[in-house]
Task: inverse folding
């Protein structure tokens, strides 16, 4: 229960950062946050630790926790690496994925489609996260799995924000269907290319993402 509460609070703090309530470099006071969310300091600490894993905040010993918004170059570089990790996972998964895992991917896509219909980006992201983690696991490469999960956690708030761009939910859903089809037919190069394009943030999409983050950085 306490862990679930910390997750909810982490999402709430994330929203406050993205809507500009907390700006880049602001110190996040545990006492003030506990009062804002009506909880003790324990789930606040856990929530801040969760956000630190994503890089959205930085914990400095004896000073506190501070908001950290990556610049455009840093964010682009992280997404470039994430896209390549996803491509590698997809290529290997196309050769190794089990029938049960394919069923799980289809189930995740059904849940994603329901979220698209409801225009619920929050629910979509949770099912989207499950979708990608299945593919990481089905790569059959434990080192790749660990690295993909680590960077996925760091990019989590930015991947969530991207889904709020107009039309992105439906586009992402269509990309999911193509990825599952490639995995079903064992098309390793196709699965790799589709996952790379699905995750890569380039051109106009990156411009829109940075525009959506601008209020938090000003």
Result:
């Amino acid at each position: 229960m306490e862990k679930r509460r910390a997750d909810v609070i982490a999402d709430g703090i994330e929203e406050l950062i993205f809507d500009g309530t907390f700006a880049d470099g602001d110190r996040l006071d545990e006492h003030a946050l506990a009062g804002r969310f009506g909880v003790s300091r324990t789930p606040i600490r856990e929530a801040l630790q969760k956000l630190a894993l994503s890089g959205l905040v930085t914990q400095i010993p004896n000073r506190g926790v501070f908001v950290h918004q990556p610049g455009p170059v840093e964010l682009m570089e992280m997404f470039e690496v994430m896209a390549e990790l996803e491509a590698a996972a997809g290529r290997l998964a196309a050769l190794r994925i089990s029938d049960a895992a394919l069923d799980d991917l289809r189930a995740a896509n059904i849940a994603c489609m329901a979220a698209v219909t409801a225009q619920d980006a929050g629910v979509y992201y949770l099912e989207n996260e499950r979708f990608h983690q299945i593919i990481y696991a089905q790569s059959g490469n434990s080192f790749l799995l660990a690295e993909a999960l680590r960077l996925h956690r760091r990019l989590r708030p930015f991947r969530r924000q991207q889904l709020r761009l107009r039309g992105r939910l439906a586009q992402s859903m269509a990309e999911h269907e193509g990825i599952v089809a490639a995995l079903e037919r064992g098309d390793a190069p196709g699965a790799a290319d589709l996952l790379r394009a699905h995750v890569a943030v380039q051109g106009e999409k990156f411009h829109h993402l940075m525009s959506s983050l601008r209020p938090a950085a000003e």
